[in-house]
């Protein structure tokens, strides 16, 4: 959205300078420039509508099904993570610096600089991402109430690119978990040491509805990992 406003501002400055220096004004260029503004306003209202729907999300009836609605991925609005009818966590994206937010919004890159916090009455779990500007590898330090409990890593290797795969690896204590999906697929698969322990479905991603099942003692942390993965996932 911001990049469209930036294009409008830059183009208007260019049109103004051309008229001031050369006395030339072309209505077609002016109206084309205004289209950037109209498109930016349209995207802004669309994002607001989707963000509001994310906040108002209500789960369907299934006691073992984790669910959320995550359509708007750039804003910092709080969303719900539920299991059955119970809201187990509220979560929201945040930015560590103004530069990170401007980068994500100007380039429309929701899969960059992902930091997410999950909270309820008992705890707050932060996923704080670290990555180099030019690197496709991202590391997360995961803390619960300020104490580090796990680490996660996303790396887009050449093999994964060839196979159109995306993988997020989560390490906690002696266990290693992997959340993966194919870029052209609507399915998310969750593994522990090579054994499948859960799966999710993005087939309703147009409606923003993400749901998945998990079978592991660390299902809360894994549910958070699926959310973070969804911020990365290109087809969702």
SSE diagram, text form:
Elements (H helix, E strand, L loop, with lengths): L1 H21 L4 H29 L10 E4 L9 E5 L2 E9 L3 H9 L8 E5 L4 E7 L7 E7 L2 E8 L3 H5 L2 E8 L2 E8 L4 E6 L2 E7 L7 E6 L4 H14 L4
Antiparallel strand pairs: 1-2, 1-12, 2-3, 3-4, 4-5, 5-6, 6-7, 7-8, 8-9, 9-10, 10-11, 11-12
How would you summarize what this structure contains?
The protein is α+β, with helices and mostly antiparallel strands and 236 residues long. It contains 5 helices and 12 strands.
Descriptive terms for the model:
alpha+beta; 12-stranded antiparallel barrel; elongated; single chain; 236 residues; 33% helix
Percentage of β-strand residues? 25-35%
* Assembly context of the chains: single chain
Largest sheet: 12 strands, antiparallel, barrel
Shape annotation: elongated
What is the structural class? Answer: alpha+beta
Please write the string of helix (H) and strand (E) elements. HHEEEHEEEEHEEEEEH
Could you tell me the number of beta strands?
12
Radius of gyration: 21 Å
Q: Looking across the biggest beta sheet, what order are the strands in? A: 1-2-3-4-5-6-7-8-9-10-11-12
Overall pLDDT level: 81
How many helices in DSSP terms? 5
